[in-house]
C-alpha cells in the first residue's frame, strides 16, 4: 500500500511542478505587458516632444497617433487585467496542488512511522522470545547439573 502512495506522491509532485511552470509563464506574460505599457508611455512622451519641437509641421498627424495610443493603452490595460486574473487562478491551483501533495506526504510519513514501530515491536517480541528460550535452556541445564 505504501508503494501505491509513493507513486501518487510522484505524480502529484509532477503536477505541482507543471502548475509552477504554467504560473511562471503567466507571470512572464504579465511582466511583458507591463514592459509594453512602459514602452508605450515612453514613446508617447517622445512623440509629444517631437511635435512640440516641430510645431505645426507634423502636429496635424499627432491626433491620429494619439487616438491609436489611447486604444493601445486600453488594450494593454485589459490584457494586464486578464493576465493578472490568470496568474491569481494559477496561484490558487498551485496552492491547492501543494496542499494535496503535503497531505499525501504526511500520510505516507505516518504510514512509514507506524510500519517502523510495528516492525520494532515485532523485533522486540522476537528478541524477548529468544531471551526467554535462552533463559529456559540455561535454567534446564542448571537443573540437570544440580539434579
Question: How does this model look, in words?
Answer:
α1 runs antiparallel to α2. It is built from 2 helices and no strands. The protein has a single domain, classed as Helix Hairpins (Orthogonal Bundle). By secondary structure, it is an all-alpha fold.
Shape: rod-shaped
Count up the domains: 1
Instruction: Give the helix level as a range of percent.
Output: over 70%
CATH class: Mainly Alpha
Major sheet characteristics: none
**If you average the pLDDT, what whole number results?**
91
CATH architectural category = Orthogonal Bundle
Number of contiguous helices = 2
Q: How is the CATH topology named?
A: Helix Hairpins
The counted number of beta strands is 0
Structural class: mainly alpha
Percent of residues in β-strands: under 5%
Radius of gyration: 36 Å
> What is the straight-line distance between the termini?
55 Å
| Multimeric state | single chain
Helix-strand string: HH
Give the low-pLDDT segments.
Answer: none
Amino acid at each position: 500500500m505504501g508503494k501505491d502512495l509513493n507513486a501518487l506522491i510522484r505524480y502529484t509532485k509532477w503536477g505541482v511542478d507543471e502548475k509552477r511552470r504554467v504560473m511562471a509563464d503567466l507571470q512572464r506574460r504579465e511582466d511583458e505587458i507591463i514592459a509594453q505599457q512602459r514602452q508605450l508611455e515612453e514613446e508617447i512622451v517622445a512623440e509629444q516632444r517631437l511635435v512640440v519641437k516641430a510645431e505645426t509641421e507634423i502636429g496635424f498627424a499627432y491626433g491620429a497617433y494619439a487616438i491609436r495610443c489611447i486604444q493601445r493603452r486600453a488594450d494593454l490595460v485589459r490584457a494586464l487585467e486578464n493576465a493578472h486574473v490568470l496568474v491569481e487562478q494559477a496561484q490558487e491551483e498551485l496552492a491547492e496542488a501543494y496542499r494535496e501533495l503535503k497531505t499525501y506526504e504526511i500520510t505516507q510519513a505516518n504510514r512509514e512511522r507506524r510500519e517502523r514501530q510495528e516492525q520494532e515491536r515485532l523485533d522486540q517480541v522476537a528478541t524477548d522470545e529468544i531471551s526467554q528460550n535462552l533463559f529456559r535452556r540455561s535454567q534446564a541445564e542448571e537443573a540437570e547439573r544440580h539434579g
